[in-house]
Amino acid sequence: MTDILLLNGPNLGILGDREPEIYGSDTLADIVTAVSDEVADAGWKVIAIQDESEAELIRALHAHRYSTAGAIVNPGALMIAGWSLRDALASYPPPWIEVHLSNVWAREQFRHQSVTAALAQGAVVGLGAFGYRLAARSLLHLLGSDR
């Protein structure tokens, strides 16, 4: 398998316009390109999916659970109460990294708990769009493809 899943949850499709003082000016397309560039030398391709619906994100995880080597997941606000997404992630066999553009622990109290992060092999928070590149590097390392 040489594909990785890049899964982005609600409101991440409007990055670049959405509260740039918090989330930065990079668009989701910029992030997809950056992650694709990061894994290209290893011969990997990115399957990028963003949806506003938890159900569609779950369908994507189920559809790609055996065809991808790993995933980078930004569940967005679903990290707080996305129990169905959490269960789908628990059933996703390959390793995955959780990413958040902002430092969720430096923000509102309700963002301080993630129902999904404990299932991830690691988490990158607060580093903006660059965090996705770090997650891609981490995933390649976990999969032994960072040589």
Automatic annotation (TrEMBL):
PROSITE patterns assigned: DEHYDROQUINASE_II
GO biological process: amino acid biosynthetic process; aromatic amino acid family biosynthetic process; chorismate biosynthetic process; quinate catabolic process
Pfam families reported for this sequence: DHquinase_II
Binding locations of substrate: 74, 87, 101-102, 111
Transmembrane segments: none
Record has Lyase as a keyword: yes
Pathway assigned to this chain's UniProt record: Metabolic intermediate biosynthesis; chorismate biosynthesis; chorismate from D-erythrose 4-phosphate and phosphoenolpyruvate: step 3/7
EC nos: 4.2.1.10
Catalytic reaction annotation: 3-dehydroquinate = 3-dehydroshikimate + H2O
Active site (UniProt): 23 (proton acceptor), 100 (proton donor)
One MF annotation (Gene Ontology) recorded for this entry: 3-dehydroquinate dehydratase activity
CDD domains cross-referenced by the UniProt entry: DHQase_II
Matching Gene3D superfamilies: Dehydroquinase, class II
InterPro entries: DHquinase_II, DHquinase_II_CS, DHquinase_II_sf
EC category name: lyase
Record key words, sorted: Amino-acid biosynthesis, Aromatic amino acid biosynthesis, Lyase
Job description of the protein: Catalyzes a trans-dehydration via an enolate intermediate.
UniProt subunit comment: Homododecamer.
Family: Belongs to the type-II 3-dehydroquinase family.
Protein name stated in the entry: 3-dehydroquinate dehydratase
Source organism: Nocardia bovistercoris
